[in-house]
Amino acid sequence: MITLTGNDLTLKQIKEVLYDKKKVTASTKSMEAAQKSRESVEKIVSDNRVVYGITTGFGKFSDVLINKEHVQDLQLNLIRSHSCGVGEPFPEIVSKAMVLLRANALLKGYSGIRPVVIEKLLALVNADIIPVIPQQGSLGASGDLAPLSHLALVLIGEGEVFYKGNRMDSLHALSHEGILPVTLEAKEGLALINGTQAMTAMGVVGYLEAEQLALEGELIASMTLEALNGIIDAFAEEVHVARGYKQQIESAARMRQYLCDSLLTTRQGELRVQDAYSLRCIPQVHGATWQVLDYVKEKLEIEMNAATDNPLIFNEGVTVISGGNFHGQPIALAMDFMKIAVAELANISERRIERLVNPQLNDLPPFLSPEPGLQSGAMIMQYAAAALVSENKTLAHPASVDSIPSSANQEDHVSMGTIAARHAYQIIQNVRGVLAIEFICAMQAVEFRGPEKMATYTKALYEKGREQILSIKADRVFSKDIEKAADWLKTIEFDQFIKNLSKKA
């Protein structure tokens, strides 16, 4: 069980909830803070104070006062009218993360929402009732209004959910789990939708996948190095310490670990003096990606525990401030940065694929074909990798440099953070496809060298890989192999795989 406080949720804990199905609960202290904040809202309503979103309309309607007898209608109308998402739904795991993150933010005690509403959010997480949330329609300020409105619909018994493998009306799933819908009171609709949880949830899931891809990329690259009789000297510790980047030093150390007992790598001058950059500069390029991932991780863990509501309630309701914490610029920039960094993993991987299949760049059979000429072998796999890499270049265009005014120019600068996060996730899927192709080609190439000469780590990966992808004895529909390899790379428990290898080594 993971206890949420609103202040210290980690990526590791989110991973446990999303992938290991750990249950969540709220700390007593955080629920007490939420209750005090709620009492402040109720006093504001009873005193007829003019406070944005509590006794007024929203956005450009902030100067329209609402009578206290209409506060429930105001919140209901808000949720329904703002549910304007379009396109395919977010992946279920992203929507589940969204619910978790919204609950965590509300537990900070600045939003004025009743504890019972937070309990409903936690119940959705624990019961795996996942809102159907369209991916498109958010500007990233005022927060992720449209996506979070579709989330909020579920709490009031409207909208749709994914439940037990089916898509259905939310009320049916809620009834099955004995969860009663809520009637939203003053400010509660606004508290549910004014935040950055869509872009942050998408970013969190993307980051977790990108982190695994970066690790897998180094092990796959190690196999490629063996297939091409690469020069191990380029990974010597003193080379990377001399430059000083921590992530580069660590990447080189992992490469040395993976290749420590290989009989296929060479030394300077043995076959050639230098390797091409796509082999020699793996720690420099991958290390730079790790630098960005570390930056992204830091920003995500701040945002996961941030109060992104508006207005925020302080001093037991004495101070209520309309600010702009809903603005997604920090996450927008982080996601754009991640897009570029992760795309580079594919850029350099595709160049390694070219070196594996191009007979002018190696001494292997052309295109790793079993019968060059009659059979094309891996020729078009490189085409596919090149296409994915080129698509990534378009997706890597920064979303955060764009803005467009909304709400009659009241909201005149927005982040586009959710678009950045969605594009980052698309890039990550493409990168996995490229790495899957490199993996297939590297496995085929080392067969010509002799798998018995491989290092302990790479040989273990080769043997695992061959359980998924058969050796190429004749041309076949390689699309299925690429898809299968990519799926395996997505699901492999890489940390445990490496730990098990370390015990054997």
From TrEMBL:
PROSITE patterns: PAL_HISTIDASE (PS00488). This is Histidine ammonia-lyase. Contains an active site 4-methylidene-imidazol-5-one (MIO), which is formed autocatalytically by cyclization and dehydration of residues Ala-Ser-Gly. The keyword Lyase applies. It is an enzyme of class 4 (lyase). There is a cross-link at residues 141-143 (5-imidazolinone (Ala-Gly)). The lineage of its organism: Bacteria, Bacillati, Bacillota, Bacilli, Bacillales. The keyword Cytoplasm applies. The gene is hutH. Its EC number is 4.3.1.3. It comes from Neobacillus cucumis. Pathway: Amino-acid degradation; L-histidine degradation into L-glutamate; N-formimidoyl-L-glutamate from L-histidine: step 1/3.
